[in-house]
Amino acid sequence: MNTSRERSQQQRPKIWTRDFVLICLTNMFLFMGFQMTLPTLPLLVEDLGGSDQLIGFVIGIFTLSALVLRPIAGHALESRGRGIVYMIGLFIFVISVGSYAFIGSIFFLFAMRIVQGVGWGMSTTASGTIATDLIPPSRRGEGMGYFGLSGNLALAFGPSLGLFLAGTTTFKVLFLACGALGLMAFILSTQIHYKKVEKQEERATTVGLDIFEKTALKPAILMFFITATFGGIASFLPLYAQQKHIEGIEFYFFIYALFLLISRLFAGKIYDKRGHLYIYLPGAALITAAMILLSWLPSTTVMLVAAALYGLGFGSVQPALQAWSVEKAAPNRKGMANATLFSFFDLGVGVGAMIFGQLAGWFGYGSIYIAAAGSVAFSMIVYLFFFMSDRKATQKSA
């Protein structure tokens, strides 16, 4: 009995290799430095005299600059190698985030947000591709869920730590700490053994027009509608809670991260066994419910319930979409598949933040979350259209 169990475990492909542990730790430090800035940058903009609309543009310009870089990073991952792209991206991230400690004007903040977007676009496109390289294909959904945990652990403590430092020290100390965490990620990244570049004869094609991987478009489009909600939470929830005199905003991010962690324990395995149908619709429904609760927001309890629902929903949907995006991509197109997915991720956050900044100025913060709920509900309709189209295509080819 024990012998057969040991044999089956030996035959099962291993996820937790040395390099996979290192990429998870590197990702955790990178995301910790990033997550600490999410709820605190709006406070910095406000301190510099900026409006809600400016907050939206500060968030949006970062994601849009990352969006421009992702296709370039995707090509570089296949032509130049994983390591060089990852480490350059991490270095740029460290310099840009650390510079926030010395910012005295919104113009300079805008400029450095663009630079940070470049570093973020390169490093996160590379990290997802590196993780994909290291995870056995038969356990990709499960492995990407574990990889996502590294970012979720950062999310559990990053926003709360950022808000704590912003409230007890200075912005200078806060952003120097963020830069130091990015530096830790850079140091760890030098110890990873990266997949070697495979020379491709077809590389002389029109690279300039090759800005996405078509096999990843469907999950990427869905990701756009989901991450639009993220712009509303990251940019405006601290200000919204403050306006409604609701305490405990730092616990929102902790509860959100906790339920994200819980979702990782089962969502990836369900994806591997049953496919995205059993993940996407339930997860999107939970996110929609969370947005509706935030649009209401009568108390701290409701806010924390919304955090739990959002954590379960987003924690299930995001790794499933990432696994789906690389599932049918050719081996030499995994980098572009990740770049495509995260380009739409950035586009959703950026467009969402800019639109929500306008909505907040016109109709108040509550309108942000009504619009966000509509975005996710619409994505469910789009998903059903994709699912039925794929089903008909399969039946015709059978």
From TrEMBL:
Keyword Transmembrane helix: yes
Coiled coil: none
Domain Major facilitator superfamily (MFS) profile: 19-391
Alphabetized UniProt keyword annotations: Membrane, Transmembrane, Transmembrane helix, Transport
Signal peptide residue numbers: none
Compartments (UniProt record): Cell membrane
Mode of membrane association: Multi-pass membrane protein
TM segment ranges: 20-41, 53-72, 84-111, 147-167, 173-194, 215-237, 249-267, 279-297, 336-356, 362-386
InterPro entries: MFS (IPR011701), MFS_dom (IPR020846), MFS_Exporter (IPR052714), MFS_trans_sf (IPR036259)
Gene3D superfamilies: MFS general substrate transporter like domains
Name listed for the protein in its UniProt record: MFS transporter
